[in-house]
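Open question from group meeting: does this chain pack into something compact, or does most of it stay loose? Before anyone orders reagents, we agreed to write out a predicted structure and look at it together. Recording both the input and the output here so the notebook holds the full record.
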Amino acid sequence: MYSPKFNRVDDRATLLEAMQTWSFAILFGPSGQEPMTATHLPLVVKDEGEHGLIEGHFASANKHWSSLTGHETLVIFPGPHTYVTPSLYIEELSVPTWNYIAIHAYGTLETIEDQDTKKRLVEELITKHDPQYLDRWHAQPEGYRRTMLAGITGFRIPIARIEGKFKISQNRTAEERHTIQAAHAAGTDDQRELARWMTRLIPNVESGLEADPKAGKA
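Structure tokens returned:
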């Protein structure tokens, strides 16, 4: 991923937090005769191993899993993003741009077929997104749950390499960053989330009294 030095974030805890927050991700890799295919999936990201662990499941009918098994897979976690108008800049000779956060994780995909582990994968997703449904899931007839689990293929990806790009106006002046952060903080959900990350990664951005013109490294 193209990422200027001032946009790169390497801190493990920050990257895991971002992936866990925006865990609906895209798996890229070959599928059958196709050189490249993408599958969109909700994932669980765990703080295990050197860079973290990704777990999830495919519908077994989606044969993308069979092509990815045993091969390096790229998983992209798209974060918040927003247009940035040059009207927020002091410099007249400026052009529009886009602020965004994206994480690229790479690792070899391992499939999971045993019933107990697939059950755990499903229940971890339910616990993350709809914990009040968990008792209802447990109350479903055993045959129904067994049939549902038979229709999925689980997987895990130990993360071998990871890239984080937090493009949040680090290359602008302190005054401009302050203006952009304030505009984001009063905007859409994505803009407010980017404003929050600007506050975390760029010291004193809310006050406009930054010392480092290219702060934002984590």
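Observations to bring back to the group:
The mean pLDDT is 94.
DSSP finds seven helices and nine strands in the chain.
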